[in-house]
Amino acid sequence: MRRTRGVQEGTSVADTDGLSDVIWMRPQPARRTVQPPLSRDQITAAALAVADAEGVGAVTMRRIAQHLGCGTMSLYRHVRNKDELLELMVDAAVGEEEPRTGSPGGWQEDLRALARAKRAVMLRHPWLAPLMAGRPVLGPHVVESIERSLSAVDGLGLSVDEMVRCFNTLNAFVNGFVQTELEERKWRRPVSGDDSDAARDTWQHRTGPYLEHLVDSGRYPLFSRMVNEAESYPDPDEAFEWQLQRVLDGLATALPE
Amino acid sequence: MRRTRGVQEGTSVADTDGLSDVIWMRPQPARRTVQPPLSRDQITAAALAVADAEGVGAVTMRRIAQHLGCGTMSLYRHVRNKDELLELMVDAAVGEEEPRTGSPGGWQEDLRALARAKRAVMLRHPWLAPLMAGRPVLGPHVVESIERSLSAVDGLGLSVDEMVRCFNTLNAFVNGFVQTELEERKWRRPVSGDDSDAARDTWQHRTGPYLEHLVDSGRYPLFSRMVNEAESYPDPDEAFEWQLQRVLDGLATALPE
DNA sequence: GTACTCACACGTACGCTGTACGCACCAGCG
DNA sequence: CGCTGGTGCGTACAGCGTACGTGTGAGTAC
Q1: What is the mean pLDDT of residues B72-86?
Q2: Which residue, B31, B14, B32, is CA-closest to B23?
Q3: Nucleotide nearest to B73 (CA to C1')
Q4: Which residues are CB-contacts of B34 (< 8 A; sequence separation ≥ 6)?
Q5: Closest by alpha carbon to A167, among A103, A236, A118, A131?
Q6: Of B213 and A196, the one with more pLDDT
Q7: Mean pLDDT of the region B58-87
Q8: What's the rounded mean pLDDT across residues B201-228?
Q9: What contacts B55, CB < 8 A, 6 or more positions away?
Q10: Confidence at residue A204, expressed as pLDDT on a 0 to 100 scale
Q11: Per-residue pLDDT for A129 more than 80?
Q12: Which of A176, A210, A250 sits opposite B176 (nearest CB)?
């Protein structure tokens, strides 16, 4: 995947014996061949691939350029700065949502499907939720997603403000839920390399004594019960569905039908 | 506030004429006087102050050390790394919550008070929500907060798992809501310096044409209505209360009484 | 064919970050 | 007095985002 964009070294004009490189004491400037021109989409795709494979911490202008086989600064022809690239990543990821709406179940089933789709994408790209937090993104895919959500509660006689509130409620819940879910997952599995040896040491074992200390202090009885009885971790899907249903129930109290 | 920790320059042994500094061509090593010893709490407080005053982006080991009047690397005696410091900041901020629970309104009023307290803290420290996202923090104050939330739904005959689910639902909503609220606030006001000139240019004016383009495309009718009719922005407090009530209603469908 | 122009790729360099390492110093103790 | 362990902190380094300027190739006008 690397160096596929055809930047090869040396051999410019009149280099018949390969000595010119040595004489000039430094590598020739890379031959400027006809590059398959860079595009914003390519860059975004590369950033997405790097983030998925090595975590969002590995998303570096240099790393992405290397992934594309181009110079670091070439990226800046197509992207204002790194922050814009991150926004593009968010929008691209949101574009992967595959909601199955329009079912005969009415607005509840539609909102449920949208929530599930959102969660699925955020779980597939664990970096998405943190990136969205505190970054107002309004890319086309995000707008499309908003439009879908709004249309799920359209035609119920609600004002736009009310529709937006419903959307915001559900949205806030899904974002918050998945964030917590990802946090929990992070200290169950260690980082991303899943060495079962290093896995143990990362959190459960490191935090174990501290947790025991908190429990033994007796000042947090309910927290302690939570820690002790949550030994066999509950199914996150089930938890999501239950909590999602509560939110939908809550919306139902303010919606007709 | 700077240089108060008493590290003064020069004047070590036998420096009667002030020339030794010049002769040695570089500043004397700072006099090692009896320092009021650094503590984790001091460091955390300094980091909090810097984050509040200049944004989380200004939270730098060097910047904090400067704020404390100590050397950068001194911090590492008390803090494993920057990430641990951020965790300490989160825990300290959560410790500022001032919930008024135990009111006669039952679990609904208690949960409402907890949610309001949480939101208040996150609004007071705009960096808190982003920092919490994707970072499992289990400091004493956080545990205390969890304990409070759990105790609000204690004694209703719920299993621990059910209690945790209720807590998680509310928590997810509050976190998600405040994050969106902060994002919106971010592109209404520009950054933090509130120059009314620069303020206009930052988002509303920069994104204006783009928004118009989206609206004019006609592909997002509901989104367009949202943009157009939300001219006079709604009261976020009111929105929070309404949405919070929906979530509480939803929980009520699964809780007795 | 030649000369000019322009878009774009990219090398270099700078200021900043987190932090590993090791030295300098001080309190307490023999 | 000498030793020792804890701690402050200066130096150094790798890596970051990115401003700036330079060089190349394609396209166009003549």
Answers
A1: 95
A2: B14
A3: D9
A4: none
A5: A118
A6: B213
A7: 95
A8: 80
A9: B127, B191, B192
A10: 61
A11: yes
A12: A176
The amino acid at A232 = S
The whole-angstrom separation of Cα B241 and Cα B257 is 21
d(CA B246, CA A169): 8
Closest by Cα among B52, B55, B43 to B88? B43
Q: Is A205 exposed, middle or buried (0-12, 13-18, 19+ CB in 10 A)?
A: exposed
pLDDT of residue B17: 40
CA-to-CA distance for B66 and B5, rounded, in angstroms? 10
Predicted confidence at residue B206, as pLDDT, reads 63
- Is residue B238 within 8 A of residue B177, CB to CB? The reply is no
d(CA A72, CA A167): 40
- Report residue B51 as tokens: 């984050």
Whose CA is closest to A44, among A107, A104, A111, A92? A92
Q: Which band of pLDDT confidence, cut at 50, 70 and 90, is reported for residue B190?
A: low
Q: How far apart are CA A161 and CA A164, in angstroms?
A: 5
Tell me, in Å, how far CA of A84 is from C1' of C12?
A: 24
User: For residue A153, which amino acid is it?
Assistant: V
Task: Classify residue B256 by burial, with Cβ atoms within 10 Å: 0-12, 13-18, 19+.
Answer: exposed
Separation in Å: C22 C1' and A19 CA: 46
- Give the CA B74 to C1' C22 distance in Å: 14
CA distance A31 to B54: 46
Instruction: Note whether B187 and A136 are within 8 A (CB).
Output: yes
Q: Is A220 on the interface with B (CB under 8 A)?
A: yes
Read off φ and ψ for residue A167, nearest 5 degrees: -55, -45
Q: What is the pLDDT of residues B172-184, one digit of tens each?
A: 999 999 999 999 8
Going by C-alpha positions, the residue among A149, A165, A148 that lies closest to residue A255 is: A165
**Closest C-alpha to A229, from B255, B159, B151:** B159
Amino acid, single-letter form, for residue A224 = S
Dihedral sign, Cα of residue A81, residue A86, residue A89, residue A91: negative
For residue A256, give both structure tokens: 């007709």
Helix (H) or strand (E) holding A222: helix A221-229
Cα distance between residue A217 and residue A247, in whole Å: 35
**Per-window interface: B 114-173 vs A, CB < 8 A:** 129-130, 133-136, 138, 140, 143-144, 146-147, 150-151, 154, 160-161, 163-165, 168-169, 171-173
